[in-house]
């Protein structure tokens, strides 16, 4: 099969690699759509020791099952494979499983390829009327659905349901969409890139600004740099909630003194539970997350150029979807 392989810092090669061999209980999936994630970009830049070269990246996938009793089923892929036996898994907190694996990290190759193998429990059937390009958004949307759910769960009932989302990329936009689906109507997105601001305003119907000084009971940092953690610390209301979902860098920025004195709740959020993923997929299928018309599709063979364009800030759309087939 053809795959886009991470070969080293800012180096990707499109070439033939062996087809995946499904393990017991796994199915072979013909990948029809796979998104480029911020974590793929971190690996591409050499910033993720969990993803050493050479490696097939990509974990935001949808496709069609090949063979077996479910041959031909259209599915979206939950890329997080867990043990199903530990206390975290039994409690429905699979994202905290100590044995968790995710495709695009060793020992599981990713989905920037024509085929990938996954357990059936990680697959959600996609209705015939839903394009697989939209179904592939279930993974990044689930990340933000999980963050929004935790933030709202931690918000004191006396406080307004109002939010600021820092970052207008796919995770930030997805957080705004999830909050709206959870009946938070007042959501402001902060995005410094002018082209992306214009795109979001034209395509997504959200209020998007370059910067703000307005306080909010909920602040979601969908970027995760020291500077955005500092902004979150400044923008959150006393007694409010910061949900931190980005992994931009490890630099300081959180104002621990203000967090303590103003009794601010800080929540680190990682991926999603299996239920979050299913709930997100259903919200895509029934339209609660909107038309999802904010993606750009390119061929997997042009993946290296897509990464370069993202690196240089030349992409206005929050998400690039790659198609592995000519």
TrEMBL record:
Domain of life of the native organism: Bacteria
InterPro entries xrefs: 4Fe4S_Fe-S-bd (IPR017896), ADH-like_C (IPR013149), ADH-like_N (IPR013154), GroES-like_sf (IPR011032), NAD(P)-bd_dom_sf (IPR036291), Zn_alcohol_dh (IPR050129)
Domain 4Fe-4S ferredoxin-type residues, every copy: 73-108
Key words, A-Z: Oxidoreductase
GO molecular function per UniProt: oxidoreductase activity
Entry protein name: Threonine dehydrogenase
